[in-house]
Amino acid sequence: MSTELHGAHDQQWLTRLRTTLTTEFEAQTARLTELTADTGDPGEAHTRAALIAATRQSLAQIADALGRMADGGYGTCARCGTGIPSERLEVLPHARYCVPCQQRQG
Ligand SMILES: [Zn+2]
């Protein structure tokens, strides 16, 4: 990793969050594999479909965050361009928006 990032977040902090995201991505991928495995129980199908959708969405958000880390756009609100506070990113590493923008989105 030789990309130099400018901004409030230092490289070590980003590396730590990247590890968190990567671990989460792997966990969710494993979960998706389990969920999509056919158990032959039709009674579970509805719950399962909802879980699969949620897991896929989560994977997409994580992949998106990792992509933004790679291109240097990570930690900046995708709507207003304000820096997202580190505390928020530590709680929600895949956050795309700052708190006010997230709330406005509903
Ligand atoms: Zn914003």
Structure notes:
The chain has 106 residues and is mostly helical. The chain has one domain: DksA, coiled-coil domain (Four Helix Bundle (Hemerythrin (Met), subunit A)). 62% of the residues lie in helices and 0% in strands. It has four helices and no strands. The chain is elongated. The structure holds zinc ion.
Give me the secondary-structure topology.
Elements: H1 11-36, H2 45-71, H3 86-91, H4 99-105
The low-confidence parts are: 1-6
Estimated radius of gyration: 16 Å
Separation, N- and C-terminal Cα atoms: 36 Å
Mean pLDDT: 89
Which molecules are bound in this entry?
zinc ion
What is the name of the CATH topology?
Four Helix Bundle (Hemerythrin (Met), subunit A)
Quick recap:
With 106 residues, this protein is mostly helical. It has helices spanning 11-36, 45-71, 86-91, 99-105.
Characteristics of this structure?
106 residues; Four Helix Bundle (Hemerythrin (Met), subunit A); 4 helices; 62% helix; disordered N terminus; binds zinc ion
